[in-house]
Amino acid sequence: MSYALEICKLYKSFPGARRGDEPKQVLANVSFQVNDGEFVSVIGPSGSGKSTLFHLIGGLEKPTSGDIKMQGRSVVGEQGHIAYMPQQASLMPWLTVAGNIELALTIAGVAKAKARAQAEEWLSLVGLAGAANEYSHVLSGGMQQRVSFLRALLSPQRLMCLDEPFGALDALTRMHMQTWLLSLWEADRRSVLFVTHSIEEALLLSDRIIVLSAAPASIIHELHVPFPRPRSEALWSDAGFVAMKQQLYELLRPKSEVFT
Amino acid sequence: MDNKQNRKFLPPVIVLALFLLIWQAAVRIFDIDAYVLPSPASIVKQGLNDWSSLLQHMKATLGITLLGFGIGAVLGFLLAALLHIIPGAKAGFYPLLVLTQNVPLMALGPLLVIWFGFGMMPRVVLITLVTFFPVVVAMLTGLTQCDPKLMNYMRMIGAKRAQLFWRLELPSSVPHLFSGLKIAASYSVISAIYAESIGSNKGLGYYILLKQRGFETAKVFAAVAVIVMLSLILFGAITLLERMFVRGRVPSTSSRLRRKKGEEAS
Ligand SMILES: Nc1ncnc2c1ncn2[C@@H]1O[C@H](COP(=O)(O)OP(=O)(O)OP(=O)(O)O)[C@@H](O)[C@H]1O
Ligand SMILES: [Mg+2]
């Protein structure tokens, strides 16, 4: 069977900052799969190499060794096969909100008129219709992230890679966005690889959670999240949820380095 | 908006007015000869007397300036794009391009006259040569220094080389292009004046040469005033274009701060 994404024994090290420095090992022997239509979260300490993992999947960097396959085919060094939301919003300042979404879609091969129509339709669906013709520098950080998220959501690639999509949002908006994403995704199940720092967020959204150690990152735990769908925030007070949260919290405490 | 403009223009205008007053007074008090230093009032008077001739020469200068500037700007833009797109081209040509800027105009001007004759050609070529360099430098800077965050994003979503150029590098270098054009604009006027003083029978450069020889210093000053106005008009036109093209984005931190302050004040 072929996976939406298959990471095989991935290693990545960067050359040292100065000549003579030791190379910096960021990923060490990372292997996991994402099934078609599965929602997988990656959780790990800051600086452990989560964004680097995305850069490898997206073909921005090449792994030191190991393989990355999509639908059974190696995609190492190839670009354009994922819908991507970077950690920093990365909107083009010379384009309007709608223009930014249109740009992402046309680069992914969507016809211009269709891209435009889709951008406008979805902006009004998420209550951002008023901002469609604004330039990004007048948007709040949270709004920029929502636009950046929408851009990834509308991109036609089958695998979505979201790097801390709700990181810059306030708690309330974040919760709202989580339930919104949940309902969207449960209606149309794409394969998702999702980086987050929030244990609750990972538990609420994912089918599976991958826990990375501090750098050099390797997988210290993999957790199936058994709660039935459709889910809602009501889950937060569920006894099973609380127990898993506690378990993950223990894993992620700084002493977790002992495990590696 | 009007208020903001006033606030910006008022201080230099006041300083200039004071300066002219002192100048006028000094010429009176120390009884300076008109061919050494004419008073501002006599400059205006003489300039108005000779206005039709000044206007005619100004038109000639404006003509070759715009022609040379236009050709230089287009060539500069194209060359920058080529040097950027063709791998290795920048490394090979850019240092040599910088070297060419050390050729003094004094040596180049007469040579161009020898090569291209006494027509308009040598003047336009000179202005073009002077104009295109700042455009190339500014444009190349813009093309190579686009936001790495945006570059990474575009590559991750699979943008091809041509898409990177048209949809990222080119738009993000537009503000740089305009700062290059502004520098080139004042260079182009100055070099037009110089070119007219060596191989021409019209234009403000020629006019100045003529009046200098006749010790009509006031008219020389009048011509200088016209040249300054010409430069300002060209500069203003480019600024206007910049506003049209760079609308909606943040051209630089300083102007963003300015805008913020303006909002607070209003
Ligand atoms: N191009 C690079 N060259 C050298 N080192 C790099 C490069 N990119 C990332 N690193 C290093 O790799 C490590 C992992 O960085 P990465 O951004 O992947 O972490 P992260 O898990 O995404 O962190 P955060 O949760 O804070 O976003 C860091 O120590 C970083 O300094
Ligand atoms: Mg990161």
From TrEMBL, chain A:
Q: Which Gene3D superfamilies match?
A: P-loop containing nucleotide triphosphate hydrolases
Molecular function GO labels: ATP binding; ATP hydrolysis activity
Q: What domain of life does the UniProt record list for this protein's source?
A: Bacteria
Indicate the segments forming the ABC transporter domain, all copies: 5-239
Keywords of this entry: ATP-binding, Nucleotide-binding, Transport
Kindly name one Pfam family recorded for this protein. ABC_tran
InterPro entries membership: AAA+_ATPase, ABC_transporter-like_ATP-bd, ABC_transporter-like_CS, ABC_transporter_ATP-bind, P-loop_NTPase
What name goes with this protein? ABC-type nitrate/sulfonate/bicarbonate transport system ATPase subunit
Automatic annotation (TrEMBL), chain B:
| Record field: transmembrane | 9-30, 60-86, 93-118, 124-146, 220-241
GO biological-process terms attached to the record: transmembrane transport
Pfam families assigned to the protein according to its UniProt record, in alphabetical order: BPD_transp_1
> What is the protein name for this chain?
ABC-type nitrate/sulfonate/bicarbonate transport system permease component
Give yes or no: UniProt keyword Transport: yes
Keyword set, alphabetical order: Cell membrane, Membrane, Transmembrane, Transmembrane helix, Transport
User: Where do the ABC transmembrane type-1 domain residues begin and end?
Assistant: 58-239
Name where it's found.
Cell membrane
Organism in which the protein naturally occurs: Paenibacillus taihuensis
Cited PANTHER family? ABC TRANSPORTER PERMEASE PROTEIN HI_0355-RELATED, ALKANE SULFONATE ABC TRANSPORTER-RELATED, MEMBRANE SUBUNIT
Protein family: Belongs to the binding-protein-dependent transport system permease family.
Q: How does it sit in the membrane?
A: Multi-pass membrane protein
- Give the principal location in a single coarse category: membrane
Query: Is Cell membrane among the key words of this record?
Result: yes
Which Gene Ontology CC terms are recorded? plasma membrane
